[in-house]
Design goal:
Elements (H helix, E strand, L loop, with lengths): L2 H14 L5 H8 L3 H14 L19 H14 L5 H11 L6 H10 L27 E8 L9 E8 L5 E7 L4 H15 L4 E4 L20 H8 L3 E4 L7 H16 L10 H6 L37 E3 L9 E3 L3
Length: 331
Amino acid sequence: MSKQEFSRLEVLLRVQSGRLRVTDACVLIGLQRRQVFRLLRGLKQDGATSLLSKRRGKPSNHRLPAEVRTLALSIVRERYPDFGPTLAAEKLAEHHSCSVSRETLRGWMIADGLWQDRRHRLPAPHQPRRRRDCLGELVQIDGSEHAWFEDRGPPCTLLAFVDDATSRLMQLRFAASESAFDYFRTTRAYLEEHGKPVALYSDKHGIFRVNSKEAVGGDGVTQFGRALLALNIDIICANSPQAKGRIERAFGTLQDRMVKSLPPRRRGSCGWRGYRRLPRPTHGWLGSSPSTTRASAVSRPIPRTCIGRWHKPIIWTRSWLGGRSARSRAT
């Protein structure tokens, strides 16, 4: 029995025993008096089994034909064997005129062994950390070296800024390597677009902290850390990759969907710069070329747990990175 059927059985038994009026039972069940008397009559004749749905165990009237299922699974098995149900459903509707909902396709792929649902995967050994409450309160930063453009150019690094409260991709930038200067440029672009966050959450890369215990000079702070200190932005270094799992999962999604959304290889496109000259694709998940992607194109709705914004506006004053410096506007 379902939860609704159990609640109906409890109400009807109270009516039979005289502890509840039929009028009150109509309010509790949400049915008219005639329907309540019909249920009481069936309960008296056949017992609790009369409350079970007569459609249980039968195929749905809205079930898609078997030919559609066979066609969709054959296309997925042939052309998209490593795609997830959501992305595969988008490709089927876009390129093959086969409109199937992602949940329907998910069930078909699980039944045929093409996909494994989350319940049957290995459980996460780490306790998830609670999100911050406000947008801009904590921003996770990291870089991922990957063959982002497949064989069209050498591997490069994608620098990403992900908000901890919303998992929104706030800033994306391709760089030749994970260097301090590229982090400076990405941080400056973030500050100009969103404002100043409260803290940044990173790994223990040498850009963010001094890892050498026998450092000869300096005050124990890197150039990037010194710039954040001047801006009054805290830097927190995680002890493990799992501690900043939100940005790690974002990189996993980007490595899967961004690479698969690249347009077909064209004549004259060679390497990273050659790809940037290609027309913007109108299909893919991001809706634009990765080099020009803004946070609004890949953002998700702000959850109810996010209660505000902690970004502070920036006033540029003097040189600190080959140009101007920044300080917070008094509030």
